[in-house]
Amino acid sequence: MEKIQHRNLYREVADRVRELIEQGVLAPGERISEKKLCEQFGVSRTPLREALKVMASEGLVEILPNRGARVTRLTVKKVRNTYDVMAALEGLSGELACQNITDEEIAAIQRLHDTMLEHYRQRELQPYFRVNQQIHERIIAAADNDVLEEMYNNLSQRVKRVRYSKKMTDDFWKRAVEDHEAMIEALQKRDGLMLGRILREHLCNKLEVASLDGMIEEEGDDELPSRAASS
Amino acid sequence: MEKIQHRNLYREVADRVRELIEQGVLAPGERISEKKLCEQFGVSRTPLREALKVMASEGLVEILPNRGARVTRLTVKKVRNTYDVMAALEGLSGELACQNITDEEIAAIQRLHDTMLEHYRQRELQPYFRVNQQIHERIIAAADNDVLEEMYNNLSQRVKRVRYSKKMTDDFWKRAVEDHEAMIEALQKRDGLMLGRILREHLCNKLEVASLDGMIEEEGDDELPSRAASS
DNA sequence: GAACGGTATTATGAATTCAAAATCAAGACA
DNA sequence: TGTCTTGATTTTGAATTCATAATACCGTTC
Question: Residue ranges of the HTH gntR-type domain (chains A, B) (predicted)?
């Protein structure tokens, strides 16, 4: 059955702006022109402004009084803080998942795991990441905690812009896969504490791989320090 | 120095609506009349509607397409889920705080602790809760993680409406104070794992004292199932 | 008396309008 | 040449307006 959901316009607009930010069309620190986006989306300023305010509460944009909205600039510290919290949430999801998960759900995750292993063997980075992400989402879903899921999705959205560097060496990759093997094992044993611990440390690994090199170290209140490469 | 901050109107409005919800002036499940609130605040519908949309993303209200906003109704499950996540966040704050906290900050918390003990001895419930809350806030602040603090504040706001039952017996209270004694000890030893564990379980106790009895068990999509006791 | 239908009223969603602040662009001046 | 005014233009913030969906009211029918 199709979900004929009359979502409010501001939600649609917010989704599209999120996409633009995620794809880097709207660069970090860039001032968001309401006029331009309205024309692009074919809507008036009202729903766009509502969307921007919601996104400000989500941490994706910042609103400067009388000076409009700009895309939040990621800093090393912000990303680190976000990953720390995400790790704690993933840890909780592991504990809860082991309490609630069904055999069928474990089997489904097992299948995803096998698919992921295949991508690993073929060294297909993008498909690997995609399936990897799905596994984590399944575990979060199995935790059966809406609030947890909501918080995790929010944080996940914020750091989606972080691109992973070429430092994804065989060594890191191998270790990540080993973590996943251990996760499956903990899941099958329904060992919540174990799964929690693995998930916490697993995500920490991801941070090490993230390319924070190019990212600015600390907050800058100034205008447009780096005009970035736009060609 | 006074912070002469020209905050946007929608933020002011949101704060005031949050107060109304927290104080129960706007009851759970109650439909929010834009007109009435606008007149009350002396603003147009634009900033109010922006505020409501932000609050929807904060989980305080729900927006039904073409049917306006209503105050989110707390359910037993929602509260439990929220507490679980808060516990995880508090646990993380304990670990991080032990890494970062200074002797001065510990001393300040120690002083708050002593004040709290005095309120405990005098059986002054409200002052006790207030200082108690301050201690937790100090630990969160000491963790030096903006994202953590933001998430925690958000969740905290959602369950502020939960009232504590008369089950706050001497026994529970004594146990809570003992937890706090242990916290101080862990802080001084800078034993992050220990402090984390205490904080997690501490919150579980709080959940037991929460008066969830009167609260509806599951979500109801209908109009106004329980008109609640208003006399 | 209860259920159904149709109209009037009200409330919401989104576009438009208007006032005020910020930005931009010249031109004056050191 | 570079900095500071001053006025024009643009952009933002918030009120207002307009179209549409939901609700309330009321008469009809069974």
Answer: 7-74
